[in-house]
Every structure is written in C-alpha cells, then in structure tokens.
C-alpha cells in the first residue's frame, strides 16, 4: 500500500509526468529529463522504475503516432549498444546502496545536463549510434533520463523522423531497463502501484502534445528544463553526501 504517500504528492507526480509526456510528444524526448528530477524531489521512490514504466507506455503511443517516419535500419545500431548499457546498469544497481544510488543519480543527471548544453554534434552513423545507445540505456536504467545521449545524434534530423526513431529506440531500451531493474531488485509491487497512480498524468500529457506539436516553443523551454534537472541533480548529490 502507498500509505506513506499523500494525495498532494500523487497529484504533483501526475503533473510532473503530464509536463514530461507533453514535452516528449512534441520533441521526441524529454519525459525523463523533465519529470525524473521533479519526481525525485517529490519522493526518490518515484524513480527509476515507476517512471520507466510510464515512459514505456508513452513510447508505444508515440511510435503509433509517428510510425510512418520510422527507419529501422538506423535504430538497430543504437539498440546493439543498449545491450551493453543494460549489463553495466544492472551491475551498478546491484553494487550500490540506497545512499549510493542518490549520489549516482545526481551525477548522471548532471552528466545529462552537460551533454545537452555541451554543443556536441556527433554524426548519425553506426559507431556513434552504438555509443549513444549504450550511454542512453545505462543512464535511463538508473535515472530514467536516457534522452540526452541519443538525442545528440538526432539533433539535426527532422521532427517526425526524430520522434519515430527515438520512440522505437526507447521502446526496446525500456524493456532492457525493466529487466535490469527486476534483476537488481528495484522493480516490485510498490513500484507497480506507483506506476498505476501516476499513469493518468502521462495519458493527459500525450493527448495535450497532439494539440501543441507544432506550437510548443521547445527551444525556449530548454533552459528551464535543464535548470530543473541540474537543481535536482545537485540536490541528489547533497542528500547522498549528507547520508553517508
């Protein structure tokens, strides 16, 4: 039971997921970058498993909406890298304690922010796809923020292609991440309950993204999103250090 969660916390979690799902529906990624830091601040138990489950369902909706632009040949290299990232993430989760998780979470969030603002423009090729897939799955499994690495190689592509290919990658990568979370003990009944009570926010956010897909100023919101992520990353590191 979720007796230690207040109605306010559940409502705030749904609002965070609504915003993240809407952002991902418009830009192709973003539910992790925006929602994960906010969910962590509401309660660390909301990440990573409940958010990964929500992101999995969202990517199914996204892929159905943008399936006409999908190019499977490009995605397969990133998924190959994702296998390696999953193995590394499983080992990491098995080795770290709850206190260590907060530190790792915070560090990876800040790495994601740095990747987003670093100005890197890697080409969309097999090697970079493999590396991005590995980094994205590793980060996505531990923090549910797997967007920045894979987004780097798609930053110069057109909207429908980005949304379709990234959705296909995130769909399979989510299954990789869930298998790692189950194996490491981070996905159980409690996480499934948290997913059930927060999923309505994703549904509303995805519906809203359909209304805003050509109107939402993603570039204008980017500094705010990254600022939120950086703040939560620093907070996680501080909490982890204080609990040592």
Concise description?
The protein has 244 residues and is an all-alpha fold. It is built from ten helices and no strands. The protein has helices at 7-27, 31-42, 49-66, 72-95, 98-117, 126-143, 147-152, 159-183, 189-212, 218-242.
Describe the structure.
By secondary structure, the chain is mostly helical. It has one domain. It is 79% helix and 0% strand. It has ten helices and no strands. It has helices spanning 7-27, 31-42, 49-66, 72-95, 98-117, 126-143, 147-152, 159-183, 189-212, 218-242. Helix 5 (98-117) runs antiparallel to helix 10 (218-242). The longest helix is centred in the last third of the chain and has 25 residues, at 159-183. The chain is globular, with a radius of gyration of 16 Å. The mean pLDDT is 90.
């Amino acid at each position: 039971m979720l007796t230690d969660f207040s109605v306010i916390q559940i409502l705030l979690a749904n609002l965070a997921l609504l915003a993240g799902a809407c952002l991902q529906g418009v830009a192709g990624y973003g539910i992790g970058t925006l929602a994960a830091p906010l969910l962590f601040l509401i309660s660390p138990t909301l990440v990573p498993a409940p958010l990964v489950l929500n992101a999995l369902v969202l990517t199914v909706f996204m892929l159905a909406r943008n399936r006409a632009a999908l190019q499977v040949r490009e995605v397969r290299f990133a998924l190959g890298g994702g296998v390696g990232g999953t193995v590394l993430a499983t080992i990491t989760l098995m080795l770290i304690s709850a206190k260590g998780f907060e530190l790792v979470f915070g560090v990876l969030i800040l790495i994601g922010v740095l990747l987003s603002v670093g100005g890197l423009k890697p080409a969309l090729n097999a090697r970079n796809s493999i590396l991005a897939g590995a980094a994205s799955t590793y980060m996505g499994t531990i923090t549910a923020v797997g967007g920045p690495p894979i987004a780097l190689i798609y930053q110069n592509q057109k909207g429908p292609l980005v949304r379709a290919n990234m959705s296909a990658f995130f769909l399979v990568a989510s299954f990789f991440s869930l298998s790692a979370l189950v194996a490491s003990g981070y996905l159980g009944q409690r996480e499934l309950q948290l997913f059930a009570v927060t999923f309505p926010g994703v549904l509303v956010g995805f519906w809203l993204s359909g209304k805003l897909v050509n109107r939402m100023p993603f570039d204008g919101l980017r500094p705010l999103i990254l600022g939120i992520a950086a703040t939560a990353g620093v907070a996680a590191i501080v909490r982890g250090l204080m609990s040592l």
